[in-house]
Design goal:
Layout lengths: L3 E4 L24 H23 L5 E6 L4 E5 L5 H17 L3 E13 L6 E11 L5 E11 L2 E4 L3 E2 L9 H5 L2
Parallel strand pairs: 1-3
Antiparallel strand pairs: 2-3, 2-4, 4-5, 5-6, 6-7, 6-8
Length: about 170
């Protein structure tokens, strides 16, 4: 297995291999949700490592190729909105060419806590695949002390269900 790391601008990221790297992928209705869950786990691991090390991270994306490899793409860090638009455009193009079977786009943001209305730091994640519905999730986090953070569980987000694969948007 290998992980291709592509950077835009001056950003760089060293990521550890995913625990799941099949020799040849068999992406079907029976295993699609498990593979998407593995992709989420990997993307969250990368995000958490960067938060622990630097306190935040540049938007990035991870795809699962038809060969069963994860590809990590990191934005420039100069303009998060442009980075996110670039990732989405690139992944939609790859999905239309059937080069990828699943994708995750991840960014560091602030969201309002439902109970208090207070803005809190959060990891925001959009997951999509050719066989599952698009899913948007987030996890609040807070700094406890230098280099130590508390991460809440992932929660489903009911808005902003960005679709990458046409099957996701067509199936709604």
């Amino acid at each position: 297995f290998f992980i291709l790391i592509i950077t835009f601008g001056s950003s760089s990221l060293i990521a550890e291999p995913s625990p799941y790297q099949p020799d040849k992928i068999d992406f079907n209705n029976k295993n699609a949700s498990g593979l998407v869950d593995d992709l989420q786990t990997y993307a969250l691991t990368v995000a958490k490592k960067y938060i622990k090390r630097y306190g935040s991270f540049t938007p990035f994306g991870v795809t699962l190729t038809i060969e069963g490899e994860y590809q990590l793409v990191i934005g420039s860090g100069k303009d998060a909105k442009k980075d996110l638009a670039m990732l989405l455009k690139s992944y939609r193009k790859q999905a239309s060419k059937k080069e990828i079977v699943a994708a995750a786009i991840v960014y560091d943001t602030k969201l309002k806590e439902p109970a208090s209305g207070e803005a809190r730091d959060a990891i925001y994640l959009t997951l999509d695949s050719e066989l599952t519905h698009s899913q948007s999730r987030f996890a609040f986090y807070k700094k406890i002390k230098a280099g130590h953070y508390k991460f809440n569980r992932m929660q489903a987000r009911k808005i902003d269900r960005t679709s990458i694969f046409s099957a996701s948007s067509a199936s709604r």
